Amino acid sequence: MTRHDRSRQGGISQLEMLIVLAFGVMTLLTITSLTNTTNALASQSRAHLSAEGGLRQSLQKLCNVLRATSLDTVIGFDYVTGTASEIEFERVVGLADGEAIYSGTEKITWRAATEAVEGVEHP
Prior knowledge:
The protein is of the alpha+beta class.
């Protein structure tokens, strides 16, 4: 047996060590990247869930205000596109001799936010 054969039997070559080390580093980088991506997606999901919860509460409050409104008195709502930036309406507050009694004219106005809003990334 030659000297070269004895050293080969007893250990690992430097090339093999480099290959294992490179594989280990690539695995570690992949796991780190997946963890960072997962954390970012979870953070975005929480933000969207929170924002949608706030929007749902706002819509419920708006529905509660408009629930007793007569459609004949609604002004400013585009029924074709389903949009409005300012709505005027009168609520039905009672009934006298078969005729509806209306409250005074009320107004809901939407104003766009152009300045930074806390918790909103792109207002």
